Amino acid sequence: MPEVFIDGKRYEYEGEQRLLQFIQDQGMEVPFFCYHPSMTAPANCRQCMVKVGQPVKDRETGEYEKDEDGERVIRWFPKLQTSCNIMIADGMVVKTQETDDLVKRAQKDNLELILINHPLDCPICDQAGECPLQIQTYKYGPEGSRFEVKKVHKPKRVQLGPRVVLDAERCINCTRCTRFTEEISKTHQLTITSRGDKNYPTAAPGREFDDPYSLNTVDLCPVGALTSADFRFKARVWEMNQTPSIDISNGKGCNIDIWTRDNLVLRITPRFNEEVNDYWMPDEGREAYKRFNENRVSRPLQKLDNEQVNSSWNNAIATISEQVDGVDKKDVTIIASPHASVEENYILAKFASLLGMNPPVFTPHVEKGKGDGFLLTDDLAPNANGCRLLGFEEKSAAGIAAAVEKAKVVLLLSDHLADRGIITTDKLKDTFVAVFATNHSETTKNADLVVPITTAAEHAASYVNVDGRIQRTFPAKETKYSNRRLDLEMSEGRLDRYGTSFDNWITEENKIDCLPLWRFMSELAAYKGMENFAYTSGREIMDEIAAANDLFSGVSYEAMDEQSGITLDKTKTTVKL
Amino acid sequence: MEYEFTKEDLKEIEKIKAKYPEVMPATLPVLWVAQNRFGHVEPEVQRLVAKTLGLPEAHVHGVATFYTQYYKEKKGKYVLDVCTCLSCQLCGGYDILEHLEKTLGIKKGETTQDGKFTLNEVECLGACGYAPMLQITNDKYINNLTVEKTDKLIDMLKKDEEPEYEEIEMPLRKVK
Fold it and tell me: Which of B3, B65, B68, B70 would you mutate first to test chain A, the one with the most A CBs within 10 A?
């Protein structure tokens, strides 16, 4: 196998590999700014300099030439090389900043060059705390500045597009953003204008940077030059918790990180998953953070004299029980939801079957022409395939409307049917409608009982995407009934760990009064005296599904975490869109 | 204002495109075609070039702004680029520049009101051997400038008489 020597240690490698990537894969580090594993390497930041040499071979014998100590004679490249665009070759000898002072000096001097015109505004810069320039200057850079002259000034606070703001002075011209629009989103909307110390990225004059994937450039930017218009100045990065999750705004199921502070979701960023979304996600998925914060149903609501009033959990349980018992089992329609998780849908189906009611039906939420073949899909719900795999009957909009009309009691799981135009609100008048919902909508307003349930940001549950891949979320946000310090699935940021309830950055308002559907249904089952129906977590429900349903065999939270999602048998998940 | 290429321009652009395996390298020469036609490559013209070549507007903008020889705004008919880099500076480049500022009544970087002259201060044009010098609209070099020679040039240009190309022998060539 071909070999390469890095800092005096021998490594074996296979295939074509970029040196910088290989070094990183071995757990070592070389500083860099412009390199990105999913894009081309133009080597224009010049930060990843290393010393590279090849052993000298005797042309006649094909043997490596040896010096008097018996070591291979190395012919070094005449100058330092950028490791990002140099390919590893057999026998290559590499010295990084760890073992070579010249490399160290080159990296330090390059940072000094990059920092000449970089403003010293880290204290008010959004990127501070997750800024490669800041981190690498700290690690490899010069200690002070030798430049006492005025810095070059460039445009600041330029609204490049509806979602991205540019501060040209901070830009180090790594061209990651322009390469993103050229190579990944292929809209070619950005370019570098001018040259020398006056250059910065911009859209063509008079044009907006309205790429549906524009916010990825904000993640890519190794400095604070491109910032999110929405997230700008909202939080320092070290104040937030980062929780892995799944994008619920469409059927692709992009892997994301949810960033919260004081139980408010402040931003959503993509999380690497080679199988699904690589490093990217659409802007629309990031907007979805508002669904977790705003317009939430908190406390059960009950309609009394045509007006919804706050109710109690006990009341909600008693009311549902009464209504279900009061009619013939066949007159109860249960509508499952592609917007809810596999676990929630399963619980509803199990409840129905134990009581001898009709099995749940559902209708997919599809908008034709929305998909782009990349990360946007026609399917606007995260879990239509989950409903199909659970064996629910898939109905057309008219079919659902007919089922609602026929029924005397409707149990509706978080699907805003009236808002989607599937049923009209006057159809709900004569029927008793109980909605398990996360957010207020026209549908919940017309319901007789609204039971608040947790969102994807508040529970651990799984979703099956359009490609039949099952992936799961983690609870990121506390409810009234969960606690970060007790729930080991929840992450704890600095403010949570070191804060007390007496600190002014901790409030109760942002905790929603809601329960996971399985908790509520378990309470309901206990009230009705049903046996074997007590669930405390999605984990045990998934284990039960995996044992009972062949299509889910082998699926568990542990397996999903280990493989970052499991692709279920595709032949069985016929995607009807 | 709507900019359009004439039929001859389009023919020339087709010829340029045929020279390269891809369209992208044609950006530079086609920008020249545009600048020769319209006298500048304002954003509108950049857009026209992008449309004609089927390239992203951002790319054409990036190329146009990279090179100072492309005029991104309307300029005078004659653009006088006066060199004030080291050799010209030592031989009186700034005197020429100031003299031109006085005679034309404009500051460097400005255009006269009649739209005839634009005066620029530029860095080295590679003619250090015959400093001080200036260049007219990306084309002719006027070398070994004196105040008198400059005045004569301005008079000529005002009458739209173009100066001749000047042939200057390199001093080394005389050595046999």
Answer: B65
